[in-house]
Amino acid sequence: MRPVDLARRHGLSTQAVRNYEEAGIIPAARRSRTGYRDYTAVHAAGLAAYTALVPAFGHATSRRIMQAVTSGRLDEALEHIDAGHALLSRDRGTLRAVEASLPRLKAAGPDAAAGTRAPYSIGELARHLGISPATLRAWERAGALTPRRDPRTGHRRYLAADVRDAELAHLLRRGSQALGTIATVLGRLRDAGSLEALARTLEEWRHGLTSRGTAQLHAAGRLSAYLDVLGRSAGS
């Protein structure tokens, strides 16, 4: 099979096919007496597997999976796949936790810091919430809070939005939510700008996880087919 034929079949350029070969994503092609590459069904199956893996696991992991499979390190490839499945499972768990937090956030009102004085120092905010400054610093290290610093003194200054985030973090901690989950909730709330926008973001996140899961199913079939072709080629 000519390089151009293989490339067209997968919507790639001939240079991309050569790059994948050089990277070990697909096996090295045999050369004709005139030096031209001769690709086979093995290469076609390899490219089909790789292009299916990318939307399922991303470019970097897909590259590692294919390099391991192509060079005969199947266990290593399966470890990368297992890690991708585990990551998807963790993301689903985080999504469920964030969705479970929404009723508590809504109960706190659209602006949990309404009517409060700002800016606060770390000590003032700690007293306002009835917690220690060390707790606020721990929440900041986890990414749940993002206070600004006074450019002259370097001290933390908690503005109204920061006070809102701190009060919501306090609310969610009382509900036994993990700091990592709280950081995700508040980060997405800051990005979305409102609870309504956050709810829409979570729905988009759910669709993305579903797409990733179905892509992993599809990639598994393509990769299995590639393994079969590799096995037949090795036995012939």
From TrEMBL:
Domain HTH merR-type as annotated: residue spans: 1-40, 119-188
An annotated GO BP: methylation
Protein name according to UniProt: MerR family DNA-binding transcriptional regulator
Top-level taxonomic group: Bacteria
Entry keyword set: DNA-binding, Methyltransferase, Transferase
Lineage: Bacteria, Bacillati, Actinomycetota, Actinomycetes, Kitasatosporales
GO molecular function: DNA binding; methyltransferase activity
Keyword Iron-sulfur carried by entry: no
Record-linked Gene3D superfamilies: 1.10.1660.10
Signal sequence, renumbered to the chain: none
